[in-house]
Amino acid sequence: MPLKVLAEFDRFVNSLSEKDRIAIITDHDTDGVTAGVIAFKALLQITGKMPAMVIIASNQNEPLSEKTVKVLKKKKINKVVCPDISLDQKERLFFARKISKFAKILNIDHHKVYAKSIGKGNVLVKPQFFSKIDPSRYASAKMCFDLFSRHTNLEGSEWIAALGLYGGWGERAWKGFFSSALRKAGISLEKIKELHGILAAVDVLEKKRLPECFNNLLSVEKPANSLRSFAKYRQRLESMLREAEMDFWKNAECHPKLEYCFYLASAKYGIAANLINRLAKKAQKTTLIIGQRAGKEIKLSARRSDRKIAVNELLENAVKGLKEGSAGGHEPAAGGKILAKDLGKFKKKVLEILEKKRKK
């Protein structure tokens, strides 16, 4: 499998030319944005032409939809490069197959394997297929850097991959690369933390400006200054997270015997993922699930830092049978959504699953 999947990747890249109209579709978090930037740089060097379009998925909408298909078709896209999004998940695979009717797809992703293929002529690359590194620690940005470096010189972009690693909690698995990347770019760990915090804040507070962040990372000469104009968002988000964390410790529904806490965040903006990352560092032996209303839906984020419970499977099993429910992600970190009216059913199912695991 290692040689086969890498050969498929190589064939896809070797088939690219300046005649292709390439679209990049990437996730909205730090790993997704940085993976998209690295893919953009690589494709520009390989084809001699900028990709025709970049779509940064939002956490309000699925990255692939009927609208996505129509836009790609209208722009006459014939190749799609999609980092950090699991197109092999059932609901996304449906749209991937529609896109496959007019465009070939390269999907570079580090989430759970849901299918071995995303359609004839398309290429699915996951760490599980060629590496022994924990997939959740092999950030998509690092994968893009490693894979595209087989075909072009990405020297100078190491710090972007390092930023993606930090955003995906993968820096410890790549200590040598991470420290070397920061040293080459002349930036500190504190600066990487700051850049990640800014991207996370823009994602939450002013999502429409993410393309500006993308372009800044793409063209910046001095990494330390790349996102300076967006720093105010980080300060605002930090204030919101401090307030939400205090409320969590007061009002979360905790079940000590199950090592589990559920919390429904009430903030105006979608802070669940950032809040739970903050809490997971302090409650590493607790299964955490945070929900947040978004219209008729509740967005879910789950964490379990010591991996005693695989939260991707926990959420997937808990949303089974719930209309419009979906979930996915990594063993220690996952996300999903349910209809708000199904919250009671979801919480009950989670308790049942955890109780069964406790009795084993």
TrEMBL record:
Chain ranges of the DHHA1 domain: 266-355
InterPro entries reported in the protein's UniProt record: DHH_sf, DHHA1_dom, SSDNA_exonuclease_RecJ
Annotated GO MF terms: nucleic acid binding
Entry protein name: DHH family phosphoesterase
Organism: Candidatus Iainarchaeum sp
